[in-house]
Amino acid sequence: MTLRPLELQDAEVIAAWATDREFCREADWTADLTFTEYRRFHQNLIQSPPPELVRLGAIHEGLLVGYVDLHGDEPQRRELGFVIGERGRWGRGLGRLAGAACLAYGFDQLGLRVIWAEALDANQRSVHLLQRLGMAETGRGGRGVFLDRPTYYRRFVITAKDWASGRTQ
Ligand SMILES: CC(C)(COP(=O)(O)OP(=O)(O)OC[C@H]1O[C@@H](n2cnc3c(N)ncnc32)[C@H](O)[C@@H]1OP(=O)(O)O)[C@@H](O)C(=O)NCCC(=O)NCCS
């Protein structure tokens, strides 16, 4: 798994993921947009990302299989986010590899000290992924809804020091 900056033509691939309604439900993407609207939305984000968003494409076997985010305006602390596109790719470890590559990028390239994340309790893939990255659970966030079920956010954090010591184990 490698990461690279997103390019304009990647918007086409990302918009195609959104044609799967079930993917949209799980990822909490609106299902109301057309392919063209999704493509335009992502083209705009790729061309003019907000200053607080670092978004990188996750590349596996030469294909864009997802993206990872480091979000926030604090100089040394950002929030991790991730998506693996196409449900058929889920459950093969790609999310974990993309998440690990993103932590490495955040700590090694951006010099962050802390990366945090939150996942809905009912989104077990996401919760497991954060646990497998070695992130420590710090508590409960606000309420949310996952696949029409009321649930709540669980918060996780990892420091540069913990990340580095996990690598040498
Ligand atoms: C969350 C997401 C990135 C996971 O991607 P993935 O490629 O399936 O991730 P992995 O294959 O690395 O699996 C992650 C964990 O989920 C577990 N898992 C797989 N299928 C599962 C299922 N049906 N139910 C519960 N857990 C499951 C895996 O076993 C793994 O945990 P483990 O390492 O403890 O065994 C992907 O489902 C996705 O893009 N979802 C939509 C967007 C989203 O929810 N993003 C997170 C917002 S914070």
Note down, in words, how this protein is organized.
The chain is an alpha+beta fold. It has a single domain (2-168), classed as Aminopeptidase. 37% of the residues lie in helices and 36% in strands. The chain is built from six helices and seven strands; from the N terminus they run E-H-H-H-E-E-E-H-E-H-E-E-H. A seven-stranded mixed beta sheet has the order 1-2-3-4-5-7-6, sandwiched between helices. Strand 2 (53-60) and strand 3 form a beta hairpin. The longest helix has 16 residues, at 94-109. The chain binds coenzyme A (COA). The site of coenzyme A (COA) has 21 residues, from helix 2, strand 4, helix 4 and helix 5.
Short structural summary:
The chain has 169 residues and is an alpha+beta fold.
List strands and helices in order, with pairings.
Elements: E1 2-5, H1 10-17, H2 21-27, H3 35-47, E2 53-60, E3 63-74, E4 77-84, H4 94-109, E5 114-120, H5 124-132, E6 136-146, E7 149-159, H6 160-168
Parallel strand pairs: 4-5
Antiparallel strand pairs: 1-2, 2-3, 3-4, 5-7, 6-7
Helix pairs in contact: 1-3
Bound molecules: coenzyme A.
Residues 26-27, 81-84, 90-96, 119, 123-126, 128-129, 132 line the site of coenzyme A.
CATH architecture: 3-Layer(aba) Sandwich
Give the beta-strand count.
Answer: 7
Instruction: Output the structural class.
Output: alpha+beta
How many helices? The count is 6
State the main characteristics:
binds coenzyme A; 36% strand; 7-stranded mixed β-sheet; 7 strands; Aminopeptidase; 6 helices
